[in-house]
Amino acid sequence: MTKLKPKKRSLTLNGHRTSVSIEDRFWTAFLGIAKQRNMGINELAAEIDTTRDPFDGGLASAIRDYVLTWYMTQADGQSHQD
User: Fold this and answer.
1) Taking 70 as the threshold, does the pLDDT of residue 82 lie above it?
2) 9, 23 in Cβ contact below 8 A?
3) pLDDT for the residue numbered 80
4) Which residue has the higher pLDDT, 19 or 3?
5) What distance in Å separates the CA atoms of residue 81 and residue 61, rounded to the nearest whole number?
6) Could you please report the per-residue DSSP string of the chain?
7) Helical packing angle, 24-36 and 59-79, nearest 10°
8) Dihedral (Cα; 39, 2, 65, 45), 10-degree rounding
9) Are the CB atoms for 62 and 52 separated by under 8 Å?
10) pLDDT digit string (tens) for 23-81?
11) Which of these, 74, 66, 63, lies nearest to 23 by C-alpha position?
12) Please, which residues have CB within 8 angstroms of residue 69's CB and are 6 or more apart in sequence?
């Protein structure tokens, strides 16, 4: 069973180590998106970090929002193929 409690994960952004606390489901989805985009997780995290609004929450929140938006877009695209 996937745990809902956030876990601390390590990332390297622009040569600096950092960590985010994020739930297993979001982390697994994040890894899957990076793989689909042929990117490393640090590269994707850096992209998200540079485009996020720093006043809108931290990097973990930005990753969750990115993952949710990604899958909502995928679902929306599939619904139009029927």
Assistant:
1) no
2) no
3) 43
4) 19
5) 31
6) ----S-EEEEEEETTEEEEEEE-HHHHHHHHHHHHHTT--HHHHHHHHHHHS-TTS--HHHHHHHHHHHHHHHHHHHHHTT-
7) 60
8) -30
9) yes
10) 999 999 999 999 999 999 999 999 999 999 888 889 999 999 999 999 999 888 875 44
11) 63
12) none
**What is the residue whose two structure tokens read 């990115």?**
66
Residue 42 token pair: 């640090």
61-67: Cβ within 8 A, 24+ apart: 63/20, 63/22, 63/26, 63/30, 64/22, 64/26, 66/30, 66/33, 67/26, 67/29, 67/30, 67/33
- Tokens 């982390």 identify what position? 27
Task: Tell me the two tokens of residue 36.
Answer: 């689909």
